[in-house]
Amino acid sequence: MDLGAFIDRYDQAWNDQDVEAIMSMHASDMVFENHTRGVRVEGGAVRELLEATFADQPDLRFRGRRRYIGEDFVVSEWTASATDAEGRAVEWDGVDVFPFHDGLIARKDVYSSSHAPRLL
Q1: Burial category of 54 from C-beta neighbours within 10 Å (exposed 0-12, middle 13-18, buried 19 and up)
Q2: Measured on CA atoms in the order 14, 17, 18, 22, is the torsion positive or negative?
Q3: pLDDT 10s per residue in the chain (120 long)?
Q4: CATH number of the domain that 52 lies in?
């Protein structure tokens, strides 16, 4: 399996805010944990988190910076941009760690500087 191509499709689904496509790439019991925000959800609750995230940030977009690919994992460095609650354009950096199981994302561990975004 070409994990780099898989994550390219996953990243595009995030930028398209395509919840169905994102969910199709997750194992049914996947764990989504944003360590910076202290948020952890599993399985079907991931859909609710995605829907809420996209509703709160309809212009949220990501661009990749670096990627590290192993046999059954990907570490992806990225920069996100969005409009904050005060209407300002902001960006922040982050890292996702993706272990895979049976060709799907088993976990998404997020670490970011979202607590201190840069104004654009």
Answers
A1: middle
A2: positive
A3: 999 999 999 999 999 999 999 999 999 999 999 999 999 999 999 999 999 999 999 999 999 999 999 999 999 999 999 998 899 999 999 999 999 999 999 999 999 998 888 888
A4: 3.10.450.50
Count up the domains in the chain and report the number: 1
Domain that holds residue 95: 3-119
Distance CA 53, CA 14 (A): 11
Of 94, 98, 33, 45, the closest CA to residue 65 belongs to: 94
Contact 119/90 with Cβ under 8 angstroms? yes
